[in-house]
Amino acid sequence: MNATFGGLSGLHWALLGAALAVIGGGSGSAMGITYIANVAGGVLTDLPDRFGPLLPLVAIPGTQGIYGFITGVLVAFVMKPGSGWEALPGWVGFQIFLACLPVCFVCFVSGAYQGLTAAGAAGMVAKRREEVGRALVLPALVETYAVLSLIITILYFFVVIRPFYSTLGI
C-alpha cells in the first residue's frame, strides 16, 4: 500500500503539487502587483486623489496567489488529515500532483499578465477618474482564466481523485 511512483511516495507527490500551486500562484501575483504598483505609484505622485480608484487595479492580480493558497489547502483536505498520509499510494499522490498543475501554471502566467493589463488600465483612471469601472473590466478578463484553472483543479480533486479513497479504504 505504501508504494512509490517514480521514486516518490504519495505524500511527497501531493506536497510537491501543493507547493508548486502556491509558488506559481504567489509568484504570478507578486509580479502582477509589482507591475501595476509601479504605474500606480507614478500616477499617485501627480494625482494623489486617485488612490481609491487605483487600489482595486493594484489588488486584482493578488487573486492568483489566493487560488494557489486554496489549492494548497485543498491538498490537505483531499489527503484526509489523520488518516495516515504515509499510507497514501504513490499513484494517488501523483494524481494529486497533476491536479495542482492547472493552478500552478495558469495562475503564474495570468497573475503577471493581469498586472500588465491593470497597468495599462491605470492610464484610463489617471486621465479620467470616472473610468474606473471600465478600467477594471480589462484585467478582470484575464482573471477568467485563473478562475477556470481553479475550477478544473477542484474538479480533479473531487471528481477524479476523491473516489479512489473509497476503494483504498482510506
List keywords for this structure.
170 residues; mainly alpha; Four Helix Bundle (Hemerythrin (Met), subunit A); 5 helices; elongated
Please outline what is shown here.
With 170 residues, the protein is mainly α. 81% of the residues lie in helices and 0% in strands. The protein has one domain: Up-down Bundle (Four Helix Bundle (Hemerythrin (Met), subunit A)).
Number of strands: 0
Instruction: Name the shape in a single word.
Output: elongated
Q: Helical element count?
A: 5
Give the ordered list of helices and strands: HHHHH
Oligomer: single chain
Please give the CATH class.
Answer: Mainly Alpha
Write down the overall mean pLDDT: 88
First-last Cα distance: 11 Å
Question: What level of helicity do the residues show?
Answer: over 70%
- CATH fold-type name: Four Helix Bundle (Hemerythrin (Met), subunit A)
What is the level-2 CATH architecture name?
Up-down Bundle
Radius of gyration: 20 Å
CATH homology group: lithium bound rotor ring of v- atpase
- By helix and strand content, what is the structural category? mainly alpha
What is the count of distinct domains?
1
- Catalogue the unreliable spans: none
